[in-house]
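explain this:
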Amino acid sequence: MVEAKLHHLQHLVMILVENLDIFHLKSHNTINKAVKEPPYLFTFGEISSSLKKIICFLLISAGLLACTEKKNNSVRTKKNGISVPVKDPDFEKGMAFFSQKPDSAFIYFNKVVNRSKDSLLVAKSYNYMSVIQCSATDYFSAQESLMRSLKFLNERKKVDFDCLSSNYNELGTNTFLLKNYNQALNYFEKSLRFCTDVSYRLIIMNNQATVYQKMGNYKMAIHIYEDITKQSSKNSTEYARMLSNIARTRWLQNPKYDALPDLLKALTIRKNKDDDWGINTSYAHLSDYYAATKPDAALYYAQGMYKMTKKLNSPDDQIEALQKLIRLSPATATKKYFTVYQHLADSLQTARNAAKNQYVIIRYESEKNKADNLRLQKDNTEKKYQLIKRDSILLTASILFIAVSVFSIFWYQKRKKKMAIDAEHAIRDSQLKTSKRVHDVVANGLYRMMTEIENQNEFDKENVLDNIEDLYEKSRDISYEKPVVSNPDFQNTISELLSSFATDERKILIAGNTPELWSKVGANVKYEVEHILQELLVNMKKHSGASNVAVKFEDKDHHIHIHYIDNGVGMDQSTKFQNGLRNTGNRIDVIHGEITFDTTAEKGLKILISFPIS
């Protein structure tokens, strides 16, 4: 099945090369479903307009022929041979879906790159993924995939040459689409250096000529086209392609050059060969040639091109033909063509954007799930026992301290009977403050320390003892109100706090945490904000089961806004707040802020905290 698809691609590439003046590409894509048409063939046409369209699917697919295993009956034979095909089920499924369902193919290729130990197979999978991303016009992501592919290849191993050549050709194509022409030429030179296939070499050379043509270096472009003609077989199809390419380039170089005989000759050859794609290209070239001198003739060929693009089911070529018809048609017909053009262009763009986003999400989910399921045992049973013992002692000491504090408060109340009413309020406030500080300083501090220990790859006993000693010192002074000291590195404090709850299974994303933002906030407010965030993260770890948490800070309308989002179990509208969240509410009141819980989401939790800048 794979070999049949390769043969089909090879056939299309040969047609492609004929019709290209500048990378005239055609390819199948599942985006067509969203455009409400049968499988479209996307076209990269003229320099003036079609460079903005999706152009790379089949050209890069042709390159992948150089990066794919072949059997004895392969379309092209290699002089130096190739590696034995690897029977990888995910790779085979990706190949099976590649032409008709690239979104499904992308998923299977992504599985290969995440688990396969075969470096060449991983490189090929990244190569195919770049094709799919390029077909969705996501050129930067395609370049990223190609760069990853190169990391798995060795320029000294001949078995990797085919994939290296394909990668560099595709990088040249993507770079050309991003209008970095000099870099594109460098990539094509590297592609030629590793190319071992004669027919594929001609494709790369044609790409070079296209870049030179776009740069206005028509002399070099013509030189390369003529060189291709000398190396290519003398069948009429290739001859028509080169005839059309050279004639058009000479006309671009000199508008007075009479390119008509060669353009018409190429059209005649293509009609005799029933080469619809070639005919479509000839119509486009002839319409451009006549546009300035004979508008009626230009309109005739534009109409012919439009009919042919509808026959070929090529939305990109239809858009190009409609652009010509809008420019050349009488005013009465322009409105009709423009309406069709606008609907087709919008549908195509919407579909491609959807496909682009889909591939980004697939990659993101894959990276998120790359957790290491086999953890090494960091501590033996004795160390765990000692840790639990120390934690128990610390907890007991804290409870005793709280008990003594409560007893002292009641004793003081009894002694001050004359101030019973005032003392009752004072005791209540003292209890709340003590409870809040015990919860924030001891309980949450202890929980945060446990979280950090869980996330350490190596157990650092000295660091743990230092943290326990620091927590012990804080617990001794828990009933005293100490003045809050200004913290100039508060953004680092927040970053360390949030990062301490990150694990291999839980990602913490932070945005907007800058020194400039916190420079406007007072020391007391910073203190409250730190404990508010600590409480949210402790509750997240205990109850939500979230694997992704995002915290965003922004300065807007003289307020600091903190957006908290996770993908955990969420919160019911009927949830009753316990001590932790109740303390959080009290802290919000202290800084004159507001906290909003979004309980309407189907999954996860969204919280907005805002407070005025002091």
